[in-house]
Amino acid sequence: MKVKISEIGEVIGGGTPSTKKAEYYKKRGISWITPKDLSGYTKMYISHGARDISESGFKNSSTRILPKDTVLISSRAPIGYCAIAANDLTTNQGFKSIIPNKNKVLPKYLYYLMLSNKDNLEQIASGSTFKEVSGNAMKNFVVEIPNLEKQREVVNIIDPISKKIELNNQINDNLAA
Known about the structure:
This protein is α+β, with helices and mostly antiparallel strands. 34% of the residues lie in helices and 23% in strands. It is built from six helices and eleven strands. Strands 3-6-4-9 form a four-stranded mixed β-sheet. The chain has a three-stranded mixed β-sheet with strand order 5-8-7. The chain starts with a strand and ends with a helix. The relative contact order is 0.19.
């Protein structure tokens, strides 16, 4: 069944605290993900980025706490990086993340679906300086969603392959080190 993203989840943008205020950032604070954190990232789940934000940084930005299992999708510079939140976290403004309605879509299915739609997301991006997928464009992005049982079947087929690829990437990283 073809549906808009807004029919299967809530689309949330991120935010960035002022980088001029060092107190807005800390070593171990509120997990904050940027598209740069997903550059070269090959795992399905992510829990922390390169830096976290402080409570005051959170309060002084437009970012929101995204719950575990939110599908994080970079919406600019570049478009289409994808990961699933392993825990509650926040993102910068370079994301249009989807909090999935689990009665309609499995987080892993949505993750695989959005990964496979990277080129289509780039097609709906607009902007003159650099391309970006707007919140409205993401909400109105149409995808094909089967019933939950079929989604489980698809995930059960893709998951073992994905895990082997992830393991191979870890082995390659260890060999390169």
